[in-house]
Amino acid sequence: MLQAGHPAPGFTLPDADMENFTLESLRGKQHAVLFFYPRDDTPFCTLEATDFSDREEEFARRGCVILGISRDDCMRHAEFRDKHGLSVRLLADMEGEVSRKYGVCQMRETDGVKKLCIVRSTFIIDSRGVLRHALYDIKPRGHVVEVLQLVKQMEQPCK
Questions:
Q1: Is there a catalytic annotation at residue 74?
Q2: What whole-number percentage of the chain has pLDDT above 90?
Q3: What is the model's pLDDT at position 109?
Q4: pLDDT tens, position by position, 80-122
Q5: Which domains does the chain have, with CATH numbers?
Q6: Closest to 73 (Cα-Cα) out of 40, 44, 41
Q7: Of 45, 64, 105, 117, which is the active-site residue?
Q8: Which of 85, 88, 108, 134 has CB atoms 3.0–4.6 Å from 117's, for a disulfide?
Q9: What is the rounded distance in angstroms from the CA atom of residue 55 to the CA atom of residue 87?
Q10: How many CB atoms lie within 10 A of CB 159?
């Protein structure tokens, strides 16, 4: 598991429009909130993505970009985005490489079958590329408000 204070693992992934996004492109410019979620268009994933989209402007006012990451492909992301009117950028980690770097992949057994699943997790990365918060196995209800509070705290000077 990643911990606050360490450099955030870099990556390049395609988004719902099949355009590549590189985390490094934010360095020195903006903070990032990465939220990893299991699957597009499931109830809790939809709740989380909708909540982040609804508050995207508040995050943007604080110099923060919101990025959703799952193992779904670009086409499925586009359908999910369009169906629910999502505004946050959704990135496709089809091979699970970035999910593994962030420690959000776990083997889980469902109906007697083990498969690799994403544990719903959120990471706040400052504009220097340093991990400020690593929140694993989160519950979606109220989570976005909690993340926004943590981002607001980044603006406050140390005492």
A1: no
A2: 87
A3: 79
A4: 999 999 999 999 999 999 999 999 998 777 788 887 789 999 9
A5: 12-155 (3.40.30.10)
A6: 40
A7: 45
A8: 108
A9: 10
A10: 3
